[in-house]
Amino acid sequence: MKTIIYMVRHGESPYNEGNERTRGLTPKGKIDIEKVTKLLIGEGIDMIISSPYTRAILSVEGLAEHLKLDIKVFEDLRERHFASNIIENAELMSSIRESFNDLNHTLPGGESNADCQKRAISVLKPVLKEHRGKKIAIGTHGLVMTLMMNHFDPAFGLEFLNQLKKPDIYKMQFEELELEEVTRMWND
Fold first, then answer.
1. 62 neighbors 26 (Cβ within 8 angstroms)
2. Which InterPro entries match (predicted)?
3. Distance between CA atoms of 124 and 141, rounded to whole angstroms?
4. I need a labelling partner for 65 at 20 to 30 A (CA). Which of 46, 54, 76, 139 fits?
């Protein structure tokens, strides 16, 4: 019995609006998410879950409304916490690269890839077990999505993360907890 997970990376989000948890989508992000909704409406999705961050919820909200489904929010699907203080983009990118070489690497006050992956998988595995044979969309973020996918197939690493778009959609087919196939659905 195949279980399908649709990883929906959030649309474009303005970095100067709100904080990490509350920032929404840019006008382009909102338009792109309408396309995501149209793309996924006919997939027969049974359940929608999301990170608690606004941009992730907004990225699956239209789909939920069309399908008349509630969005179940899981705190442990939030994006990786990088550091306790504001850091420069170059330092962040360097830290992300290093995190894929050493899964326990982190900046002061931050979270490691290993810890982020562990908490996200603590949500995904029970969802796969409890909703076997169902189709589930997940409103997510680039890094946490990559780490969830990496748990099942190490080919999903830094190179994969670096080529992701905002938004992006990956359809993952599982047999029990075994990842059998991954298909990119977003082609914009």
1. no
2. His_Pase_superF_clade-1, His_PPase_superfam, PG/BPGM_mutase_AS, PGM_Phosphatase
3. 14
4. 76
Among residues 10, 22, 19, the alpha carbon closest in space to that of 140 is found at 10
- The answer to whether the Cα torsion of 171, 175, 176, 178 is positive or negative is negative
Structure tokens at 185: 């659905």
Nearest to 103 by CA among 160, 158, 140: 158
CA distance 3 to 43: 13
More confident residue, 91 or 2: 2
R_g of the chain, CA atoms, integer Å = 16
With a CB cutoff of 8 Å and minimum separation 6, the contacts of 149 are 7, 156, 160, 170, 172, 179, 182
Whether pLDDT at 18 is above 80: no
For 80, left (φ over 0), alpha (ψ -120 to 50), or beta? beta
pLDDT tens-place string over residues 146-175: 999 999 999 999 999 999 999 999 999 999
- pTM for this structure? 0.94
Mean pLDDT of 20-40: 95
pLDDT at res. 34: 97
